[in-house]
Amino acid sequence: MSAPLKGSCFCTAVTYVVSGAPALSAFCHCTQCQRQFASPFVHAIHVASSAFSWTHSEPHDAQLDTFVIPTKPWKTRYRCKNCGVCVAGRNSQTGNCSIWGATLERTKDGKIKAWDVVKPTAHIFYGTRMVEVNDDLGKWEGFEGKSNRVA
Ligand SMILES: [Zn+2]
Ligand SMILES: [Zn+2]
């Protein structure tokens, strides 16, 4: 059993903890992630909803804005009301929560503390990439192992 993963928004008003290892950890190049985070790709982590808990002061909702993705109403995003950072998502179809590696707790040198547990295993939705990535990870058109491998 690994130590729980802790993370927060940029201003730290919103905090969370995740128990256990991720169900998925990958660099995601899908257009939804690109547009939502204004970034060529993001480090996406999926965990079971039961493994995810908010840890900031109650009531948790007082610190959170929710955003339902209009084209995918089963996906809700939770953002800090103060700094606006998106800290988690919930998918009511899969029963998973999403978090993003960049929000995880850091060492004083700026490294993600739990990197050994959360390091990405692949690049997913690489067909819509905005940038080529030359690393050793597999590149997939969709999800890892469930789509065509691109590289
Ligand atoms: Zn914040
Ligand atoms: Zn994505």
UniProtKB/TrEMBL annotation:
<dbReference type="GO" id="GO:0046872">
    <property type="term" value="F:metal ion binding"/>
</dbReference>
<dbReference type="Pfam" id="PF04828">
    <property type="entry name" value="GFA"/>
</dbReference>
<keyword id="KW-0456">Lyase</keyword>
<dbReference type="InterPro" id="IPR006913">
    <property type="entry name" value="CENP-V/GFA"/>
</dbReference>
<dbReference type="InterPro" id="IPR011057">
    <property type="entry name" value="Mss4-like_sf"/>
</dbReference>
<keyword id="KW-0479">Metal-binding</keyword>
<feature type="domain" description="CENP-V/GFA">
    <location>
        <begin position="5"/>
        <end position="116"/>
    </location>
</feature>
<comment type="similarity">
    <text>Belongs to the Gfa family.</text>
</comment>
<keyword id="KW-0862">Zinc</keyword>
<protein>
    <recommendedName>
        <fullName>CENP-V/GFA domain-containing protein</fullName>
    </recommendedName>
</protein>
<dbReference type="GO" id="GO:0016846">
    <property type="term" value="F:carbon-sulfur lyase activity"/>
</dbReference>
